[in-house]
Amino acid sequence: RILLNQIGFAPQAAKVAVVPEVSATAFSVINTDTEVAVLEGELSAFSEWTPANQVVAQADFSDLQDPGTYVIRVAGAEDSDPFVIASQPYKALNIGALKAFYFNRASSALAAEHAGDWARAAGHPDTDVLVHASAASAERPEGTSISAPKGWYDAGDFGKYIVNSGISTYTLLAALEHHGAFYAATDAGIPESGNDTPDILEEAMWNLEWMLDMQDPNDGGVYHKLTTKNFAGAVMPAEGTEPRYVVQKGTSATLNFAAVMAVASRVVAEHEAVYSGLSDDMLAAAQSAWQWAQANPNVAYQQPEDIQTGGYGDSRFEDEFAWAAVELYITTGDDDYLQAANLESISNGVPGWANTDGLAWVSLAKHRANLTAAADQALIESRIVELADSIVADMNSSAYGVPLVAGNFYWGSNGGALNKAMMVLQAYDYSADMKYVNAAQALLDYTLGRNPTEYSYVTGFGARPPMHIHHRQSEADNVVDPVPGFLAGGPNTNAQNDCGADNYPYGDEAVARAYLDHWCSYSTNEVTINWNAPLVYVTGALESIYGG
Ligand code: G3I
Ligand code: 9MR
User: Fold this and answer.
1) What is the ipTM of this complex?
2) Which domains does the chain have, with CATH numbers?
3) Crossing angle of helices 413-431/377-396, nearest 10°?
């Protein structure tokens, strides 16, 4: 099959399809209404993309800009899926991806008015959460009850994990900070839509309110997670009624919290009339978390013996220290935080829940016009541009035209691809060079169908989306379609034996095909907030850049 982005393209976007090995050397683009070929072109030379073990050529039809619905045709191959060229091609996807967060809200019923077929009862009030032995303190002994409602379920499970909430919430807030005009005009159809604040901020607020309750007011430390002892079965949220605990304070959770609250403080400050006093409270919370981490700089999360849910353990803290310091510096203008960030020793890289260095550079670059004189502007630019140029180079040497290499196919690879897209877009801000936008477009194309599994990896979007994501609501709700707007984790070469050894298409060692659309495959087909967040970011950024 000819592979491409199954949704389509903005008129001025780079447009590429991938063509399997055939003897033809030309392609045509057919308007599906008229059956007329509106563009004919030469295929690139065929070459191998090792992650897919496939020899392919590219059909570049960027010149076609007329709005319409089309397919790509090559003699000897099956036609591509139909796609559109249209203005705002990713507006609905951006809203869907944001709305996935709403669908994963804890402590709230979802009304049919907002949730449609996926309306459901409230689950996990989390107003009576027990302090686990690992989190006990003099003021809050083991078994004490605290209240920490709201927040998003992390993923297909019902846990609420601070570390992963950190990058996810940051990415939504960054989307708003970077592309405010786009989000001011977005109506996501959530309960708060129509008030005076952007929906993306309202959605982030659902999690920020929970995060604030995860800080122990007695010392500023932040609990690593709020969880049951074991994963629930495939039940609806309201049926997940096992006791919930807050577990162990740690350095990584506390610094994630500090970073996100520092960002939230400056974002909320723009809406002081609505959130009176909250900006100051968030900054104070960020600062007391920072103080706790100064006093406890090396407390790695150790999963207690009686807790089996997600670990999110991380023992490298320089990146979280740098990120928190940078966000506090940007929000306060205090050079002491800049010094503490020790930026010369911090590299830039594609972020993930355990690697937050890149987030520090993103924030510095975006706020560069307002930094103090002590900031090394040349260093910031070089960190951003060097990473982006390496991504562009990977795109140019890939037969698929997609900047992904064999090492990128780990648990959550689709989230990794979109975080890469987010990072390459930061360089566009410095030079307005479209090569950076084209690389981000290629990565989005990859997740929406320009990949060897032929899936568009987002539920409800594209011709061939996943139907059986590892997501408890989707599995338990008796609705055929999964909850829409979720990005599946994607190919994973370290896939667990979660569906049995015979059930994986791994035999050919094509790493980009190591994916299974089945509920059992949590290592390739789960969904999480931290993979959906860059889907929101990238779709909003491309809409904002292409305009129209
Ligand atoms: O980052 C390294 C990379 O540098 C290296 O090249 C690669 C090669 O092995 O490994 C990468 O690390 C992987 C890491 O994910 C990447 O973030 C680990 O192998 C992999 O085991 C790890 O998987 C994590 C998984 O939990 C198991 O711990 C996922 O990131 C993480 O998203 C997932 O999180 C779970 C929660 O625990 C529970 N809730 C659901 C959620 C999603 O499945
Ligand atoms: O559903 C769980 C998923 O959220 C996690 O990412 C995954 C790995 O920690 O574990 C899943 O839970 C499985 C458990 O680990 C083993 N028994 C089957 C569970 C899935 O049904």
Assistant:
1) 0.94
2) 91-375 (1.50.10.10)
3) 120
